[in-house]
Write a structure and sequence with these properties.
With 244 residues, this protein is an alpha/beta fold. It contains eleven helices and four strands.
């Protein structure tokens, strides 16, 4: 059972320690979608560093139907933020391709453009980019490589969705942000529609509490296996020392 207070406090201290070792005085730069992960990660950074050292970046792709949630979060935390619409950049890349891009290509260009945008903000503001992935998403590869899967530090990657939501409610974030139905904002479906199982089922399985139905267990295991490469360093050739 999650010791919410201790895990939250330990995470806050871990963020402080990271910045002491990897950029004293630097700012945390975080993409704000209005969903639970970016909301909770931003709140933890504010507690660790103070609101003056956290910069939110809102990156709608044209019109974002739930952008009010992102506004609500940055206003609740009192942090500085930039709104940068990435639609023109995404459209220009897609149109420049000399072939008909696959559906997956079209889906993955936006998160990669957004990460490029985050690093542009970060480098101009003495920043460190916050990765907002969680253990549940990482377990089944529900992220875009070189998109939302990267960053400079990751406060949530060893916590499940269920555990993160507990922390969000514990630290007093608005319940509608914590409990917001997770939507990737790219394909119009919820995360759970895309995955084929609920986060509650996945989280209980990850923590060894309860196995899902056999068909869902098989699906989870397959997704976990084929997506492990996303969590590993890029393979690199190492020549024999005697040959160099």
């Amino acid at each position: 059972m999650l010791n919410v207070e201790k895990v939250k406090n330990d995470c806050v201290q871990w963020i402080r320690d990271f910045f002491e070792q990897n950029g004293p005085g630097c700012n945390a730069v975080i993409g704000i979608s209005g969903g639970k992960d970016s909301s909770i990660a931003a709140a933890l950074c504010v507690e660790a560093l103070g609101k003056d050292r956290v910069i939110g970046v809102l990156m709608p792709n044209g019109v974002q139907g739930d952008i009010d949630c992102a506004y609500k979060l940055v206003n609740h935390l009192g942090i500085k933020y930039y709104e940068i619409n990435v639609k023109e950049t995404i459209d220009s890349i897609t149109k420049a391709l000399p072939f008909e891009p696959s559906v997956q290509t079209v889906t993955n260009i936006p998160p990669r453009v957004r990460m490029t945008t985050l690093y542009a903000v970060s480098q101009s503001h003495s920043g460190r980019v916050v990765n907002t992935c969680n253990l549940s998403e990482d377990w089944v590869g529900y992220s875009t490589r070189y998109g939302d899967s990267v960053g400079d530090f990751s406060p949530l990657s060893h916590l499940t969705v269920t555990e993160i939501k507990e922390i969000g409610l514990y630290i007093g974030l608005p319940a509608d942000l914590v409990d917001k139905v997770p939507i990737d904002g790219l394909c119009g479906k919820t995360d759970e529609d895309n995955l084929g199982f609920t986060y509650a089922e996945l989280d209980r399985y990850i923590r060894g509490i309860e196995e899902p139905a056999p068909d869902k267990k098989a699906l989870i295991d397959r997704k976990h296996q084929i997506n492990l490469f996303k969590l590993e360093l890029m393979p690199s050739f190492m020549p024999d020392e005697k040959d160099i």
